[in-house]
Specification:
about 60% helix
Length: about 180
């Protein structure tokens, strides 16, 4: 092909392409596309259930975290009582007991308390049990009898200092709770 034929072919192509570029879309095309999208959305049901399950799981996590945080911030009370287990009514020699279904359930045998333990911690009929006064308690009774006015003043001062200590401890624990 010669140069002139090539140039002529290029011009014809350019004029044809210019006609296609200047063409407007068909009337109502935008409305048809939007209607098609709306119809597609109506056919697919929204799956909102997963959002609610995620929200429920997050709420449960928050509740558990708050419960654990409040549990750990409370001071634990010391164990005061020293209880001995009561002797078992009957302990099978094999160390097992039969359940209602007839199968044997392994069980550790309960031993009755030793005589030395019973003598150290006797079971008393009255609680709190009356005990003899210690040396310090006897000295305190004697001091109160001999100097009643001073004893009252000392008791009041001690009660006030205990209240101040409780207030300081309360303020410190309130301050640490706000920082967390």
């Amino acid at each position: 092909m010669t140069d002139e034929k090539q140039k002529e072919l290029d011009r014809e192509l350019d004029t044809a392409l210019a006609k296609y570029a200047a063409v407007e879309p068909r009337v109502g095309l935008e409305e048809r596309v939007l209607a098609s999208l709306r119809a597609g959305q109506a056919q697919v049901p929204e799956r909102v259930w997963w959002r609610w399950s995620v929200a429920g799981a997050l709420a449960a996590i928050i509740v558990v975290a708050l419960a654990l945080a409040s549990r750990s911030s409370r001071p634990h009370a010391p164990v005061i009582a020293n209880h001995h287990p009561a002797p078992a009514a009957s302990v099978e020699p094999s160390g097992t007991r039969a359940s209602s279904s007839g199968s044997a359930i392994p069980r550790t045998p309960v031993r009755p308390p030793r005589k030395a333990e019973m003598a150290a911690n006797p079971r008393l009929d009255q609680f709190p049990s009356p005990r003899a006064l210690s040396e310090q308690e006897k000295l305190l009774v004697r001091y109160v009898r001999e100097f009643p006015e001073e004893a009252v003043l000392i008791a009041q001062a001690q009660a006030e200092s205990e209240k101040e200590i409780e207030q300081l401890i309360g303020n410190q624990s309130a301050g640490t709770n706000h920082q967390q």
